[in-house]
Write a structure and sequence with these properties.
Layout lengths: L9 E4 L19 E6 L15 E7 L9 E2 L8 E2 L12 E12 L2 E5 L7 E8 L2 H4 L28
Antiparallel strand pairs: 1-2, 1-8, 2-7, 3-6, 3-8, 4-5, 6-7
Length: 161
């Protein structure tokens, strides 16, 4: 396969200046506010997004250094396959967070419920439509007895450079 190149559409701004202490999932940052500042070339693309309550932020995990195919995730003490986790050190360090939209002003998208380090490159924004995401018979593997504690965990630096 050939190389794939993406250009960031903007930068995500949050109160988190380093990975330590960042909530490990958006649910842990439920009350944390931030904003995405888009390159002015992409401002027009924010049109009509204000009609949605939530959006996915898709971003480059720029502080991840390389990857491992087996990791010990934050919510476990057992080594797991990286694709069965949401660990940031992955073959393609892409992150996704579902945030609640507060406002759109010019080229800025203000939101709440963020788990991202300040200065993270933003690759894309997609509206959240629950009817499109609805699934039946969902299983969540090794997280089944741990998921209720996701908001209790903060990043501890195990996946950074």
């Amino acid at each position: 396969m050939g190389e794939i190149v993406y250009e960031p559409i903007g930068i995500i701004h949050t109160p988190f200046t380093s990975p330590e202490g960042v909530p490990i999932q958006p649910s842990g940052g439920r009350d944390v506010e931030g904003f995405a500042e888009l390159d002015p070339r992409y401002e027009e693309g924010l049109a009509d997004l204000e009609g949605f309550s939530h959006a996915y932020l898709i971003y480059h995990l720029h502080l991840a250094d390389g990857y491992r195919l087996k990791v010990v995730p934050f919510m476990d003490s057992v080594e797991r396959g990286v694709f069965a986790t949401r660990a940031p050190r992955r073959p393609n360090p892409i992150g996704i967070s579902l945030v609640r939209i507060k406002a759109i002003e010019g080229n800025r998208l203000y939101f709440v419920g963020v788990d991202v380090v300040d200065g993270t490159p933003l690759l894309d924004i997609k509206p959240f439509v629950p009817q499109f995401e609805a699934q039946e018979d969902i299983r969540i593997g090794w997280l089944e007895d741990k998921v209720h504690r996701a908001g209790d965990f903060k990043a501890d630096g195990r996946f950074q450079k």
